[in-house]
């Protein structure tokens, strides 16, 4: 008879892959099922942001997983927010007094590959191109479908759902017991654009590859909307335009045509537009991403299944803490599961993490207002001058 694996992780995104690594390091048997193909072979097709800000909370989990150094080797340090208030003015607001308090900009694809490699090296087994499509909780079996839709059933151990905001495991759990799900969509969406790297001539310094200050998270606040840009290690920046989806003023609905969007950028982001050489192509090709806050009353189903990361608490990205928060989840859950029976571990996990997730969800929504207008608000600047944040 086939041995039943101890832990079955659904989703090999950032949180699922880190969790698999942490559990496998403790000698626990881990199987991971991921809907997408292997990003190490077929290229990364993750639909969310191209790069992300890694903060101390996430870094702590990576340190425990023995991966902080390899992650930081691929990252660009960001010392603070560089505010582009208009008329070509830019001012750096540091995150802390020195370089001990910084954020790190990382490629999502590179980080995901690193985590999968590390989890595999620790003994976790990955199955790519296998989407969870159904669960039979009483028989402890799950139904998986490959890229062609061909389904199969496998026996599974305890289920750990790291399959993101649209979690299939969450949907299956909700069929068995009400989870108290509440989804609050944001009326603003986002679109990503690219600032190309420069090509310094012979003898040119490394920093000259960047068209803007590399060690900053750039923000162009414009009241009802904004652009931000995070540096990439190759000298490029990923720009994210956050804009209302619809409405009377500037919105994605009104700026569906790339030529109209370019004219809007020329008027509102005149210093940024010349840095985006493929503006019209990027704008036409990249979809408008939707954002929402997900709150759940119940994160687990007795001793059988638990949700973590975006599957349990998706938040809007304005504090750059979604992944960081998910990494904290993975760290705590792996600690609890190493010593405690699943039902107790899951209940304790929710007890400790839910207040944290609720708090960051609230702060992320508040921070959108601060980023798009508060960062140039005179009250904000006065508070900063007094050392208050
Ligand atoms: P996901 O990254 O969504 O991964 C889920 C995985 O599950 C995917 O690989 C998916 O293919 C797989 N999957 C889905 N369905 C199934 C299925 N049925 N069967 C099997 N597998 C499945 N966070 C930060 O900390 N810092 C930032 O700077 C930051 N910036 C962001 C910018 C934007 C624009 C957005 C949208 C988000 C940002 N976030 C940031 C949040 C961050 O992206 C998420 O919190 C993080 O990706 C959550 O990781 P996860 O592994 O829980 O979910």
Question: How would you sum up this structure, described in words?
Answer:
The chain is an alpha/beta fold and 389 residues long. It has 2 domains: 7-50 and 108-184 and 293-369, FAD/NAD(P)-binding domain, CATH 3.50.50.60; 187-285, no CATH class. It has helices at 14-25, 39-42, 56-64, 68-73, 108-121, 168-176, 258-268, 279-285, 310-313, 322-339, 342-372, 378-385, and strands at 7-10, 30-33, 51-54, 76-78, 80-86, 89-94, 103-107, 125-127, 131-136, 141-145, 151-155, 158-161, 182-185, 188-195, 217-221, 226-231, 237-244, 292-295, 300-301, 305-307. It is globular and about 65 Å long. The model is unreliable at 1-5 and 380-389 (pLDDT under 50). It contains 12 helices and 20 strands. β15 (217-221) and β16 (226-231) form a beta hairpin. The protein has a 6-stranded mixed sheet, with helices on both faces. A 6-stranded mixed sheet has the order 6-5-15-16-17-14. It has a 3-stranded antiparallel sheet with strand order 3-7-4. Residues 10-16, 33-36, 48-49, 52-53, 131-132, 162-164, 168, 190, 240, 289, 309-311, 317, 320-324, 326 line the site of flavin-adenine dinucleotide. This is Kynurenine 3-monooxygenase. Residues 9-173, 301-340 form the FAD-binding domain. It holds the Pfam family FAD_binding_3.
């Amino acid at each position: 008879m086939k041995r039943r694996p101890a832990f079955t992780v659904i989703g090999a995104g950032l949180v699922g892959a880190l969790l698999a690594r942490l559990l496998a390091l403790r000698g626990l048997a881990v199987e991971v099922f991921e809907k997408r193909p292997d990003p190490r072979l077929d290229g990364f097709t993750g639909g969310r942001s191209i790069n992300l800000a890694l903060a101390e909370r996430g870094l702590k989990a990576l340190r425990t997983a023995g991966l902080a150094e390899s992650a930081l080797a691929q990252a660009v340090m960001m010392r603070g927010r560089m505010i582009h208030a208009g008329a070509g003015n830019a001012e750096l607001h540091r995150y802390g007094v020195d370089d001990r308090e910084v954020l790190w900009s990382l490629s999502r694809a590179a980080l995901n590959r690193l985590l999968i490699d590390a989890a595999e090296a620790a003994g976790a087994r990955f199955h790519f191109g296998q989407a969870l499509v159904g669960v039979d909780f009483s028989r402890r079996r799950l139904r998986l479908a490959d890229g062609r839709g061909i389904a199969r059933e496998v026996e599974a151990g305890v289920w750990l759902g790291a399959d993101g905001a649209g979690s299939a495991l969450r949907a299956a759990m909700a069929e068995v017991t009400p989870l108290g799900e509440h989804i609050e969509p944001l009326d603003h969406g986002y679109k990503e654009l690219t600032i190309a790297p420069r090509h310094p001539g012979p003898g040119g310094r490394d920093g000259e590859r960047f068209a803007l200050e590399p060690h900053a998270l750039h923000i162009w606040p414009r009241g009802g909307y904004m652009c931000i840009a995070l540096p990439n290690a190759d000298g490029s920046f990923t720009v994210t335009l956050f804009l209302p989806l619809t409405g009377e003023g500037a919105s994605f609905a009104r700026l569906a045509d790339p030529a109209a969007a370019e004219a809007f950028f020329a008027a509102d982001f005149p210093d940024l537009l010349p840095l985006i050489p493929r503006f019209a192509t990027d704008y036409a090709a990249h979809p408008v991403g939707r954002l929402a806050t997900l709150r759940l009353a119940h994160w687990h189903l007795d001793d059988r299944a638990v949700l973590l990361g975006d599957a349990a608490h998706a938040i809007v990205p304005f504090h750059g803490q979604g992944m960081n928060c998910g990494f904290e989840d993975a760290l705590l859950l792996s600690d609890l599961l190493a010593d405690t029976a699943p039902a107790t571990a899951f209940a304790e996990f929710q007890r400790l993490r839910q207040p944290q997730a609720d708090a960051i969800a609230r702060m992320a929504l508040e921070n959108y207002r601060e980023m798009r207008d508060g960062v140039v608000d005179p009250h904000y600047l006065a508070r900063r001058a007094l050392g208050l944040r």
